[in-house]
Every structure is written in C-alpha cells, then in structure tokens.
Amino acid sequence: MIVGKVVGSVVSTRKNERLIGQTAKRQAVTNYKKTISSIKREMGTDHTVSIDDKKYNCIYMLITKGKAMTNKERFIEIFRSKIKREGAEKLLDYICSSGSDFFTAPASTRFHGAYEGGLLEHSLNVYECLCDFVKRPRFREKYGFTFSEESLAIAALLHDLCKTNFYKTEMRNVKKNGVWESVPYYTIEDNLPYGHGEKSVYIISGFMKLTREEAFAIRYHMGFAEDENKRNVGKSFELYPLGFALHMADMEATYFLEGKD
Ligand SMILES: [Fe+2]
Ligand SMILES: [Fe+2]
Fold this sequence. Notes:
Elements: E1 11-14, E2 17-20, H1 21-26, E3 35-36, E4 48-51, E5 54-57, E6 63-64, E7 67-68, H2 71-82, H3 88-96, H4 118-133, H5 137-142, H6 149-158, E8 167-176, E9 179-188, H7 197-205, H8 212-219, H9 230-239, H10 241-257
Antiparallel strand pairs: 1-2, 1-3, 4-5, 6-7, 8-9
Helix pairs in contact: 2-4, 2-6, 4-6, 4-10, 6-8, 8-10, 9-10
Bound molecules: fe (ii) ion (FE2) (2 copies).
Residues 159-160, 196, 221-222 line the site of one fe (ii) ion (FE2).
C-alpha cells in the first residue's frame, strides 16, 4: 500500500535522518553508501534494500505529504488510525515509553529480524501480510470470514508484544581474519515468563479489552510450531479463523520477507 502522491526516486539516511528526492540526490555522491537510487520502481513490492547493514522493506519507505515515514511512525499511524477502543492510547503510551524496548528490540536472537528494530519491522510485515491474506476470495466468499480493520491491526501489530523487554545484548569473542574481536549478540532474558502468545494477550489485556477472537488469534498465532496441545490449536483455528490468518501472515513475514541479518 502506498500512501500519498509524492514519491522520491532517491532515498538516503544521514545522521539517523531520512532524506527523500532532491535532498537525497544532492548528497548522493558524498554519501553513496547510505543512498538508494531508483527506489520508486520497487515501492509497494517485497524488495528490500540495505543501508548500514540494516534491511529496509520498500513497502515501509512510504511518503505522506512528501515526508518519508520511519517504521516507528508507520506503526503509530496504523495503531492510532485503526485501534480506537478504550485503553488503546494507554497501551500505545506504554509501547512508546522508556519502559518498553518494542521499537528497538530484535524479532529473534539469530533467525528472522535479529537486529535492532527487527520486532517492529516484523510486526509491520505481519500487518501487511494479514491484510493481504484476508482479502483472498476463498476466505471471504467461500467461507464468509470477515474481520474488522481494528481486529486486523490489533492481531498483527501486537501479536509479538511478548518480545518487549525480552532480549538483551551480550558480548562474545569472535575470530575475524585471525584476530579476536569482541562482538555483540542477542540473548534471552525473560522477566515475565508467561509463555509466548498468552503473554502478549496478558500484556494487552492490562490496558484494553480484546474480543475473544483477537485473544485466541494472538494466543495461538504460532500454530503447531510451539509445544502446544495440537488439538487446541486446530480447534482454535476452526472457531476463530482470524488465528489461522494471523498464523499464515506470521509465517509469510518470517520466511519470505525477513531473513537473517
Ligand atoms: Fe510470535
Ligand atoms: Fe510473529
């Protein structure tokens, strides 16, 4: 989905600031390592570009009124425009607070999104995949499954909230070109060991009420991949198809949109 009409063909980052169009073009020679040209043709596709060893999905290099949105801005924009229920603003305040590392946390220690901002990127990728998945004619016409935009945003953006304050960085020695170097790596430090999907449901419920379908979808979004009671997973998908769609979107984002750092 592309928002807005003004799309720059060149984007760049400089001192954590995102530059677009002519501004990016002017500094392209001196800042060539952090500048991507001809981005326009990739907008809205699954193509990714790398700047500073970080991957950016072109879908999120969105421009509204001539201004590119960061993943954090995009998350907040979707959250505020789609999630209107009581307590939602308080939950967003918590996510944005210094007590939460949601926007900087990785999505995993070694696999998908194992870099700063990986969890945020994954949550947005799942949102795109989920919105797309539920548009399938079979889903809507054959089975008659429909979901509110609010439920889609809640399920996708918040399904992995359990990974907030879940990872920490440690250092280890690695030999590079025959020389030992101290490099950072992610490890797990779970201070609220309440499971995975169930922990996300627990955190969200502290701020706002979930519908039963949203709660089941988030609770069972890992599908059969976790050490779950298999009968419960199947039954929950049958009862609450949003869970099935969320699981599919989660897998699509993980295996096709995201990779190792
Ligand atoms: Fe998950
Ligand atoms: Fe996930």
